[in-house]
Specification:
Elements lengths: L4 H17 L9 E7 L4 E5 L10 H11 L5 E8 L11 H10 L4 E5 L2 E4 H4 L6
Parallel strand pairs: 3-4
Antiparallel strand pairs: 1-2, 1-3, 4-5
This protein binds zinc ion.
Zinc ion binds next to helix 3.
Length: 126
């Protein structure tokens, strides 16, 4: 699917949140994510690192939305901080989580493409 104006704003939202919180000393926060809910609200998150593996930015963004009472998710995106600003397709664990939280969620995977989570995760653990 092609991106619409709201998708481009979602990318910018994720880029801004990691721009504001980028950690180039300890590298604890290097990715920003933004998720748009079914009612159009946007929630953001940055990844939180730990000794082995922390939480991806998408997990934090969805967790923030869930904490605010949201249960329907329209579109999500993650953006790498630093100079590239590259859009990151989600890791395997995040794909599974997105599928479980909303099987109709869309995922922005590049500057000009979004796909459904069911397309991105063809054989979910369900
Ligand atoms: Zn992930």
């Amino acid at each position: 699917m092609a991106l619409n104006q709201a998708d481009k704003e979602l990318i910018e939202f994720a880029a801004n949140v990691i721009r504001e919180n980028y950690d180039n000393v300890n590298w604890w926060h290097t990715v920003g994510a933004a998720v748009r809910t079914g009612n159009g609200k946007v929630y953001a998150g940055v990844n939180c690192d730990s000794v082995s593996h922390g939480a991806c930015a998408e997990v934090i963004a969805i967790g923030s939305a869930v904490t605010a009472g949201e249960r329907e998710f329209d579109t999500i995106v993650a953006v790498l901080g630093g100079e590239t600003g590259k859009i990151l397709p989600p890791c395997g664990n995040c794909r599974q989580m997105m599928y479980l939280y909303d099987k109709n969620m869309n995922v922005i995977v590049s500057e000009d493409t979004k796909v459904s989570i069911q397309e991105l995760l063809k054989y979910p653990c369900d």
